[in-house]
Amino acid sequence: MILASGSAARQAMMRQAGLSFGVIPAKIDEYSIMDQNAALGPAEKSLLLAREKALAVSRENADALVIGSDQILCLGERIINKAKTPEDAIEKLRGLRGKTHRLISGVAAAQGGKVLWSHAEHADLTMRDFDEDFLAAYAHQAGPALTACVGAYQIEGAGVWLFTRIEGDFFTIMGLPLPALLGYLYEQHGIGP
To answer: Where are the beta strands (DSSP E) in the chain?
Structure first.
């Protein structure tokens, strides 16, 4: 099995579940794929990117079962991309404060250049209506997480301070709907604990 992602969080979740796998991050142009499929909604884009990642690595490793995953953050139908700078991240957080946004995590399995399975789940996260002092303190504590994660937060770290309500699966929030993936691996491939 190969995970087509360089995400440390996805790798940790799969390892903690007892899966044995290699890692080959997919080399795809996510923004180009999203631009070419602009008419798709956020959930469909998340699945599309997960499939494209799995396929890209699967074509080079035909015998391996390749797992691809992607996560999209949206406010309504508007997709919000990962911040490039800490200043950009702070602006994104200002735009999200006091509102509920959705994280959609897609996962796909491919083998021999063919998608065998895909699945998406979502979580809704409501940010507290924090003031500028709170935001400055959070940004200082978050450090690199501001630009490492799509929402400028790591929920497993200081990012949890940003929220008043979280509805959805923790694994989905972390970027991989793990229970669904484990169900697929067990039911279709006999991979289990």
So the answer is: 2-3, 22-23, 66-75, 78-80, 100-111, 114-127, 163-167
Active site residues: 70
Q: 71 with 45: CB under 8 angstroms?
A: no
| Pair type for strands 2-3 and 114-127 | unpaired
Distance CA 42, CA 37 (A): 10
What residues form DSSP beta bridges with 123? Answer: 103
Secondary structure (3-state) at 3? strand
Q: Cα 3 to the chain's mean position, in Å?
A: 13
Full-model pTM: 0.92
Residue found by looking up tokens 């959805």 in the block: 168
Extract the tokens encoding 159.
């990012």
Residues 2-189, CATH architecture: Alpha-Beta Complex (3.90)
- The one-letter code for the residue type at 16 is Q
pLDDT at 25 over 90: yes
How far apart, in whole angstroms, are the C-alpha atoms of residue 6 and residue 175? 12
